[in-house]
Amino acid sequence: IGEATVIAIRGEESGYATDISRRGVDVHVLGEEATQKATLRSGIHEKIEQGNYDAIVEPAAIAEVLEWMNMIAFSGQSYEDGSSFFVDHLGKRVVGTNFTLTDDAIDPEFLPFPFDMEGLPKRRVTLIENGIARTPVVDKAYADRLGVPATANGWALGSPDHGSALHLSVA
User: Fold this and answer.
1) Which of 21, 54, 126, 139 has the smallest CB count inside 10 Å?
2) What whole-number distance in Å separates Cα of residue 171 and Cα of residue 102?
3) Residues in Cβ contact with 8 at an 8 Å cutoff, skipping those fewer than 6 apart
4) Rounded alpha-carbon distances, angstroms, from residue 26 to 5, 40, 164
């Protein structure tokens, strides 16, 4: 197992590259990638008009957004307290139809995690399917409170966290 992050700086610009893998990480490749990004960005300082633009976003940036959303929007607790965008939107389109988000602890690309901390067997949980909000992740307590099946996302007894996705995957 390996994880590495490289930040290369050139003048006032920087480039970022990161990787995590069960098969190890090649830090030289990451260094080259970060350096190339910093080099490409140096000297590019043109103003653009305000407006709507298509953007290409790196996987690491999407991963960070999803990590934040996981903390504030995907749990049964956030659903119950009204802070989740899933509130009043389950079964409705919340993003583009080309987006599916799952919590899949049995995917071989992730580290194996066959049970949650409450002893429930892990399974694939679809949070968003083809743009449609399907379910928040819930431990036993929030499953009972919300009247839904537990999704095997429980933490240890006494933990302030009442369910979160640990194996997010985008398709």
Assistant:
1) 54
2) 8
3) 14, 15, 31, 34, 35, 37, 38
4) 11, 22, 30
Is 51 part of any domain?
no
What tens digit of pLDDT does each residue of 45-68 get? Answer: 778 899 999 988 888 889 889 999
Domain boundaries, position 17? 2-41
How many domains does the chain fold into?
Answer: 2
Q: How far is residue 106's CA from residue 69's CA, in Å, rounded to a whole number?
A: 21
pLDDT digits (tens, 9 = 90+) for 90-121: 999 999 999 999 999 888 888 778 899 889 99
Which amino acid is it at 129? Answer: E
Same domain, 126 and 88: yes
Question: In terms of domains, do 85 and 157 share one?
Answer: yes
Identify whether 49 is part of a domain.
no
